[in-house]
Design brief:
Distance between the termini: 18 Å
Order of helices and strands: EHEEEEEHHHEHEHEHHE
Radius of gyration: 18 Å
Strand content: 15-25%
Number of domains: 1
Shape: globular
Helix content: 25-40%
Length: 233
């Protein structure tokens, strides 16, 4: 039995993304599908003061007609420096800031100017730090039928990877049909994260922020415990 998940590369995504990676044997980073503007590929929420704040990794010439792996980051260092300063301002007093800040900086100032490379690097780096051993694969590395779309393409990829159990984020409930997967010999489930709370500077808790927030306030043992705080539907 092989468990697989497929998700676009997201910029320091929330805990549910990491739960999904940890729950499967192989996680396919969907880097050659169309870029979605105002999505989570180049932005996410952090805690600034006591409120949710959107941080954004600037892009250059991004278009919803281009695949993610062709989108480039803005080549002006001042934008990335501003982003890093915002993160430092938000978390410099957090208990694990000194451990986490260097990893964030490595991703933001990645040597490649392609956003998919920087985000993929961050996924690899954070996974290693947390202790996730799941195999990570770029979808662009697969020889596949790119004429297929949506559910049909996901099923096609699952067959290429010899998947018997496909797990999707809860947002896919309206996109994918269990019966269609079953006809191809694949069991389909959806991962729904449990509510997770922890101390954030002693103020009212703000949920579902970037993994940056969880890592800044929790030790590795606690974070690993959070990886199992979900149910499959």
């Amino acid at each position: 039995m092989k468990k697989t998940a497929i998700m676009q590369p997201y910029f320091f995504p929330y805990i549910g993304y990491w739960q999904l990676i940890n729950a499967v044997d192989e996680f396919l980073v969907y880097d050659d599908v169309t870029y979605i503007k105002n999505g989570w590929i180049n932005r996410n929420n952090i805690l600034l003061g006591s409120k949710k704040h959107m941080m954004t990794l600037p892009t250059c010439g991004a278009s919803s007609f281009m695949p993610i792996n062709q989108i480039r980051m803005n080549d002006s260092k001042k934008y990335n420096e501003k982003l890093m300063k915002t993160i430092e301002q938000a978390y410099k007093k957090a208990p694990y800031f000194n451990d986490i800040a260097p990893m964030i900086k490595e991703a933001i100032f990645h040597s490649s100017d392609k956003i998919a490379d920087a985000v993929y690097f961050s996924i690899q780096r954070i996974s290693k730090y947390i202790g996730i051993n799941t195999k990570l694969t770029l979808s662009s590395s697969l020889v596949k039928n790119d004429d297929l779309q949506g559910q049909d393409k996901v099923i096609h990829i699952c067959k290429l990877l010899n998947t018997t159990n496909y797990i999707n984020a809860i947002g896919g409930l309206e996109l994918y049909d269990k019966e269609s997967f079953a006809k191809k010999g694949i069991s389909l489930h959806f991962l729904k994260s449990n509510k997770i709370t922890y101390k954030q500077f002693g103020r009212d808790f703000v949920p579902w922020l970037s993994i940056i927030d969880i890592l800044m306030f929790n030790d590795i043992k606690t974070v690993r415990g959070y990886l199992n705080e979900f149910k499959l539907i």
